[in-house]
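Technical note accompanying the year-one report. For the benefit of new consortium partners, we illustrate the data format agreed upon in the data management plan: each record pairs a sequence with a structure-token string. No post-processing was applied to the example shown here.
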Amino acid sequence: MSNLDIYCLSLYNEDYKKIKSLSYKPVGLGEKNFSANWLRDNTGENISLKNKYYGEYTFHYWFWKNSLKNLTPNRWTGFCAYRRFWTRNENTLTIKNKNDFLNYVPDEWSNYDVILGNNIYMDGWSPAKIIKHGLRFFITNPKYFLKKNQNLKLHFDSFHGYGNLEKAINLLDKEDREDFRSFMENQNYYNQGNMFICNKKEIFENYYNTIFPWLLRCEKIFGFSGQNYGSTRIYAFLLERFISYWFNKYTKVKIWPIAFLDINQTNEFN
């Protein structure tokens, strides 16, 4: 028996059999209609109504409040989504059939606490993209016209509201505030997908006790009236960067490939 539990998050009721065939735990997000056999983020203590804004993290909140206390010690527990999956091994960068999905704990994980997805790099913006998305940022920070100076702060300010990152950072607990600011100003990559796998209950607890009080403070500034996708889901986008900073600071991290595959667009499950 594999020492691994993967929760696979979906928005579509028809995905259930496909997810179960991978030996994953199907999770239905938000207020859409799902059949009774789904695990839902709108039961028990929950914030499911915020799914439009928090994305995957409405289930993380549910997991924190309703399931974490029952976590089996030293058992690996992680998360994926219906369009983003962990691959079977480090050399598998794409998924072509069911054998390519992760379904066991690789030996390479033995000296690590947390598994994060492979990096997405934010450098190398073209002048056209700069003008389209980040003109205001570049006017006040002209040095970032040089590709070597482009960083995560540039990308976030350009796509999720100029100045919003700094407002959010100022609401972090002091032990993370300056370090996260430095991370965003000096890194040009983050670990993709808001996905991780972990084998220690105390790490889950520390992470969730950091992020959810922070997000509540952010809600008082940003609210729930974003004008576009980038600002509406600002909470999920903040955490997608924060996950890379926090786990690398406080835990031993192993990087593992994530492949993009929409299980509704493949014949593999027919």
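Partners are asked to follow this layout when depositing records. The chain has a mean pLDDT of 88.
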